[in-house]
Write a structure and sequence with these properties.
By secondary structure, the protein is mainly beta. It is built from 1 helix and 20 strands. β18 and β19 form a beta hairpin. The longest helix is centred in the N-terminal third of the chain and has 4 residues.
Length: 229
């Protein structure tokens, strides 16, 4: 009697500020950050925020408006980063002064694999797609769908990490949306516990033979949210 269970834990989500604004249960701001939704866009200045959800592998697209080309005194980060891990198990876009980098870290060292990216003036003060594709064996960075770097040496290990937005300046870093695709694991916290979303498809087939022959096939698909602890 064969029995097959197929499990798909890929997570897809589109965070639309027009719909959600600033969801207090979705974001963790660190004082004294200015963090608000204005005209369907999330604005951040003078600080940083994390998502309360944590994620593993997948594609993460940030539609960002960088107000100026990288300039002395600038410090902006957007990507996957945990304050608890620090410079471990993270991957992000990083503007530091007049330089623009992409960085990734593994679990073993606080030394980054880093690529310096030449800033394109067309990316200034207009909504631009910045994307991180985190795989088991590599991290890829894209701008407007074009690959600008691929890292193979320092790859975050099989852990869950939050999305992170940081802007240390007084000007406004703006996010039009945040899109998640093909995320292998997504875990969210609440007062009741930690939840992991998953969907499961199962099917079973049985047959028997006596004076008569009968067979039955059944299948079901369910989508559930499981309490972890």
């Amino acid at each position: 009697m064969p029995d097959t269970t197929l499990v798909n834990e890929h997570y897809h989500f589109f965070y639309d500020p027009f719909l959600f604004g600033i969801r207090q249960d979705y974001w963790k701001p660190y004082s004294p950050v200015t963090f608000k939704a204005v005209n369907g866009k999330i604005r951040i200045s003078s600080g940083n925020v994390n998502t309360t959800g944590v994620f593993m592998y997948g594609n993460y697209e940030f539609k960002m408006t960088i107000p100026t080309a990288p300039t002395a005194g600038d410090s902006r980060i957007f990507g996957l980063y945990s304050k608890a891990y620090g410079n471990r198990n993270c991957a992000y876009f990083f503007i530091s002064g007049s330089n623009f980098y992409v960085r990734s870290y593994n679990n073993d060292s606080a030394v980054a694999e880093q690529t310096t990216i030449t800033w394109n003036t067309a990316w200034t003060n207009t909504p631009i797609s910045f994307e991180i594709r985190w795989r088991v064996d590599r991290v890829e960075f894209l701008v407007n769908g074009s690959k600008i770097a691929r890292h193979h040496t320092k790859i975050p290990s099989q852990v869950t990490v939050p999305v992170y937005l940081s802007n240390d300046g007084n000007d406004i870093l703006e996010m039009s949306y945040l899109r998640f695709d093909e995320v292998r694991k997504a875990v969210f916290g609440s007062e009741q516990g930690w939840y992991s979303s998953s969907s499961t498809t199962s099917s079973s087939t049985s047959s028997s033979t006596s004076s008569s022959t009968s067979s039955s096939t059944s299948s079901s698909t369910s989508s559930s949210t499981s309490l972890l602890i």
